[in-house]
Specification:
Helix content is about 35%, strand content about 15%. With about 250 residues, it is α/β, with parallel strands linked by helices. The chain has two domains: about 5-145, Rossmann fold (3-Layer(aba) Sandwich), CATH 3.40.50.620; about 155-250, Pantoate-beta-alanine ligase, C-terminal domain (Pantoate--beta-alanine Ligase, Chain: A,domain 2), CATH 3.30.1300. The strands form three sheets. A three-stranded antiparallel beta sheet has the order 5-6-7, with helices on one face.
Length: about 250
């Protein structure tokens, strides 16, 4: 959606490295914002974005307007279940309907062989993968590892709205997730471990939407670490909503 940072540029570089011509779309999608969310506040920097994309080797940039994406006689959206039903799906009703619908439209307009999505938005990645599979769309969805600041904060266009104090406190999210992942991987009881993590984040000033141990592809909650387990979280810190996730791999005894 623009306001590109190193995480976005990593997606472009991964696409360019494949040897194919690379297309990037920039469209701040109103359909994925709720009634009280920050559509008007979402950062926009078209000139900076175009320069960054050119520097990364992007071949084409597609910048459709709202009237192209959603003409007045538009009557179709994507209805989702499965990995879209919990977590972000519950915290932000209709959000994934907007994400899936705009992705389906962009895939139809551009006709890519592959589409690259960051793992920071883990649930979004799984929702788009499921949609592409279920609708037999002729492309591969490729996940790219989360890009972080040197201190661990996951890159996000909204990070610029954090105050200096909030920016320092924001580091606790990834630190707590990483520590909790290690405890869960060692076989700690998920309910108790997650309760401790939630308390720690609340004490640091986070207003949690969720912190959960889930099956990576389906986003179904897990009682303990296992294959494909993922620890996911979303929390409000000041005016900024932060999301992050880390893998959890159970330590198997020899």
């Amino acid at each position: 959606m623009g306001a590109l940072h190193d995480g976005h540029r990593a997606l472009v570089r991964a696409a360019v490295a494949s040897g194919a011509a690379t297309v990037a779309s920039i469209f701040v999608n109103p359909l994925q914002f709720g009634a009280h969310e920050d559509l008007s506040r979402y950062p926009r920097d078209e000139a900076g974005d175009l320069a960054a994309l050119e520097a990364c080797g992007c071949s084409v940039v597609w910048l459709p307007g709202a009237s192209i994406m959603y003409p007045t006689d538009d009557a179709t959206t994507i209805v989702l279940a499965g990995p879209a039903e919990r977590w972000e799906g519950a915290a932000r009703p209709a959000h994934f309907r907007g994400v899936a619908t705009v992705c389906a439209k962009l895939f139809g307009q551009v006709r890519p062989d592959r589409a690259y999505f960051g793992e920071k938005d883990w649930q979004q990645l799984q929702v788009v993968k499921r949609m592409v599979t279920d609708l037999h769309l002729p492309l591969e969805v490729v996940g790219v590892a989360t890009v972080r600041e040197p201190d661990g904060l996951a890159l996000s266009s909204r990070n610029r709205f954090l105050t200096k104090d909030e920016r320092e406190r924001a580091l606790r999210l990834h630190a707590v997730l990483s520590g909790t992942s290690r405890v869960l991987a060692a076989g700690g009881p998920a309910d108790d471990v997650l309760a401790d993590a939630r308390h720690e984040l609340a004490q640091a000033g986070f207003a949690l939407d969720y912190l959960a141990l889930v099956d990576g592809p389906t986003l179904a909650p897990l009682p303990a670490a296992g294959p494909n387990a993922r620890l996911i979280a979303a929390a409000q810190l000041g005016s900024v909503r932060l999301i992050d996730n880390v893998p959890v791999q159970r330590n198997e005894r020899p």
